[in-house]
Amino acid sequence: MKQLRHRYGGGAEISFPDWVLDAGGHALLVGPSGSGKTTLLSIVGGMLQPTSGQAIVAGQDLRQLSAGALDRFRGQTIGLVPQKLHLIASLTVAENLQLAQYLAHLPKNPQRIHEVLTRLGVAELAQRRPHQLSGGQSQRVAIARAVVNKPKLLLADEPTANLDDDAATAVIDLLEREAGEVGASLLIASHDGRVKSRIGHSFALQRQQAEETA
Ligand SMILES: Nc1ncnc2c1ncn2[C@@H]1O[C@H](COP(=O)(O)OP(=O)(O)OP(=O)(O)O)[C@@H](O)[C@H]1O
């Protein structure tokens, strides 16, 4: 991140400090509500063009990519577990993962889909549709979808919100394990103290300004 700033139409400008997340490193993005955590994930996830500055992912300056190239790069290089999981209701679990391969312009790979669903303990749910899953199962499927293309950067937005202690621990374990499995850097936005105690390195945002903590 270099001199990143963003202003939503008419709103105040949010400026983010320069920061590097090492390849394969795991970090927590913290800050009070409204400090810009989701905005930052959207920028480094290639879904939001910042007003100014550079987001560089795996050596690629996202600004340099055309819309089509950015879609492909995002699909192949970045995995996102959004706050609202956004599984496609009309598709089965397996088809939701197939769609991630398709959107990244990768060949169909049912074996990889089976492998990742198995790793996450939800292979037997492959033919179900999202409304037939529990909240925890849906979250595992969303993690599976985020890692199916073996991204270099895995982003998760408040993945433990509304989870009890055991489920929150399980989700953080899964994210760390799956990021480790594919060698991805992991950035988790959270103001959950339970997550803070698990992930040592954190990056803190404050309203309209930010500072890094070790
Ligand atoms: N689409 C939008 N249009 C206008 N303003 C927005 C939009 N999205 C976010 N904002 C504003 O940008 C600022 C940062 O919001 P953001 O959602 O990134 O913060 P956050 O740290 O993720 O908050 P939370 O912890 O509550 O999820 C807030 O002031 C918010 O009101």
Automatic annotation (TrEMBL):
Keyword Phosphoprotein part of the UniProt annotation: no
One of the record's GO molecular function terms: ATP binding
Database matches in Gene3D superfamilies: P-loop containing nucleotide triphosphate hydrolases (3.40.50.300)
Domain (ABC transporter) ranges: 4-214
Keyword Nucleotide-binding: yes
Entry keyword set: ATP-binding, Cell membrane, Membrane, Nucleotide-binding, Transport
Xref: SMART domains: AAA (SM00382)
Pfam family, one: ABC_tran
Protein name in UniProt: ABC transporter ATP-binding protein
Organism of provenance: Parachitinimonas caeni
